[in-house]
Design brief:
The chain has 179 residues and is of the alpha+beta class. It contains 5 helices and 5 strands, in the order ααβααββαββ. The chain folds into 2 domains: 45 residues, no CATH class; 126 residues, Histidine kinase-like ATPase, C-terminal domain (Heat Shock Protein 90, 2-Layer Sandwich).
Length: 179
């Protein structure tokens, strides 16, 4: 039996509590006289309610940006998050504009309302944007810098088909999804 088979067996009837599951797996797989360090990470995940996700597949057409700002504003109103509309519309404009201007393939916009408001823009390019400070004479290059100033976090996640640029905005405690 391989190590992966042993792990699969140990997890097949594991306790739902992550800490107890870790203890059981470690006891089943490790000899008492081990000679190396071992690390095991078990995490509990939960699917996000579909009413807290909005997603759009978009053509690479600059005219779509204005329509998506309006769609995002409607979605935020449905979620009682009107106060996040200004920032989210700016984020959507910048990230979609960059994806349409610089990337390839289909573009996808997704909003997720959980403990924070997540905005993701996916495209078919693996070139990540970089934050820069535009010179006073530059006509462009300030958008991502502005986005970074208005959200709590942002980043890039690579996929097998390209990348996702994401931003995270804090929500008022009353509007956060329960854990």
């Amino acid at each position: 039996m391989t190590g992966l088979d042993q792990l699969r067996d140990a997890l097949s009837d594991a306790d739902p509590d992550p800490e107890r599951a870790c203890d059981a797996v470690m006891a089943a797989l490790l000899s008492p006289r081990r000679t190396d360090d071992v690390c095991l990470l078990i995490a509990r995940t939960a699917a996000l309610d579909e009413r807290r996700v909005a997603s759009w597949e978009l053509p690479s057409d600059p005219e779509v940006v204005a329509r998506m700002r309006a769609a995002v504003a409607r979605t935020l109103a449905d979620w009682n998050l009107e106060e996040a509309a200004f920032t989210t519309e700016l984020v959507v404009s910048e990230l979609l504009g960059n994806a349409i201007r610089h990337a390839v393939g289909p573009v996808r916009l997704r909003l997720m309302r959980n403990r924070a408001l997540i905005c993701e823009v996916a495209d078919g390019s693996t070139t990540a944007p970089h934050l820069r400070r535009a010179a006073i004479t530059d006509e462009g290059g300030r958008g991502l810098f502005l986005v970074a100033q208005m959200v709590q976090r942002w980043g890039t996640r690579y996929t097998k088909n390209g990348k996702i640029i994401w931003t995270e905005q804090d929500l008022p405690a009353a509007e956060r999804a329960p854990r």
